[in-house]
Amino acid sequence: MNQEFRRLVELYQNELLQKVIPFWEEYSIDWQEGGYFTCLDRTGKVYDTDKFIWLQNRQLWTFSLLYNQLEAREEWLKIADNGANFLANHGRDKEGNWYFALNRQGQPLVQPYNVFSDCFAAMAFSQYALASGKSSAKEIALQAYNNVLRRKDNPKGKYSKSYPGTRPLKNLALPMILANLSLEMHWLLQSDELENILTQTVTEVMEDFLDSSNGLIYENVTADGSHLDCFDGRLINPGHGIEAMWFIIDIASRRDNLSLINQAIDAVLSTLNFAWDEEYGGIYYFMDVDGHPPQQLEWNQKLWWVHLETLVALSMGYRLTKREECWSWYQKVHEYTWKHFTDPEYREWFGYLDRRGEVLLNLKGGKWKGCFHVPRALYLCWQQFKLLSAE
């Protein structure tokens, strides 16, 4: 097995450092106005210059991480500086809330309707503060993080479309991202504050959103964790659930909690057994837990991030437990992912496939796909197999 692990180390390392990161370095940096272009076609040509706060902060996080964890390359810090300065100058409104979208010059286009802009800002500036040593970056990270905590019970605030009181549902996305975000910011938080938040988020995800009867993670539940028989109440988002589980595995590993690690792995395996397309391969985007037609018309598409987050969860789970089911599923998902999402002619990965696995959108970046899920997963899988090969 060690030979196989070493092969995978080389595969992930080369893909990250020789193909994916050079693509973003060459095509995405807006040296003139600051920040990054994310709307890139298959070859790297910019087809739209609007700047989306999620993706701007995610790219800042990526290049800061590379600088901090792999090598203190001057060019990586320069690219991070370019994003950080643009975001610090243009990313927030007067109250400190992070917008959703800006034009190329940094003028706001879409109001700060979603707290996830603040989540990714906190992640990005925490990592950038480590890279740059700037106290101003620490302040921005903490301000954004406190925004998230302040808004977590009403994340969209005045921008919410839901009528209050009729069907109160809470969504998985915020507690799952808060678990990961808090770990990202551990060096800026008091240890008791960090542990309290981690405990709260783990409890909420594993007791309210994870259904012990079927092993699936629901996207929306009531305040007490029960289910409602409606579109939103029956919704399963396999990628979200699996990504949330590797966040939980990461927390459990730091706490040496093998029982929690195995509980999260069980949920990953249950989700894969439920959401794998037996006819064409790949993981469905959305599913209805009772088998009814989902409301999302794109439900049967196969998305890059869903498969990449699954590879992270399975490689992490296998390293920590050596469970054969993890390795068997890892090989199955790896084969599908590397066959269908990689581009044999140009760098970076495709993001959107139809059910049959054919490329649906001939792009490498857009409004939702940027420099984040591919490089993060390549880096994390590389590190998992590096540890496995050393055992």
Structurally, how many domains make up the residues?
A: 2
Q: Please list the strands of the largest sheet in the order they lie side by side.
A: 3-4-5
Strand content bin: 5-15%
Mean pLDDT: 96
Largest sheet: 3 strands, antiparallel
pLDDT < 50 stretches: none
Helix content: 40-55%
At the first level of CATH, the class of the largest domain is Mainly Alpha
| Terminus-to-terminus distance | 10 Å
Count helical runs: 12
Overall number of strands: 13
SSE string: HEEEHHEEHHEHHEEEEHHEEHHEH
What is the CATH-assigned architecture of the largest domain? Alpha/alpha barrel
Shape: globular
Pairing-aware structural class of the strands and helices? mainly alpha
Instruction: Provide the gyration radius in Å.
Output: 20 Å
| CATH fold type of the largest domain | Glycosyltransferase
Summarize the structure.
The protein is mostly helical.
Description:
The protein is mainly alpha-helical. The protein folds into 2 domains: 1-28 and 173-391, Glycosyltransferase (Alpha/alpha barrel); 52-161, no CATH class. The protein has helices at residues 2-27, 53-70, 74-90, 116-132, 135-151, 173-184, 191-209, 238-254, 258-275, 304-321, 324-340, 373-389, and strands at residues 39-40, 46-48, 51-52, 101-102, 108-110, 170-171, 210-211, 216-217, 220-221, 235-236, 287-288, 302-303, 352-353. Strand 1 and strand 2 form a beta hairpin. The radius of gyration is 20 Å and the shape is globular.
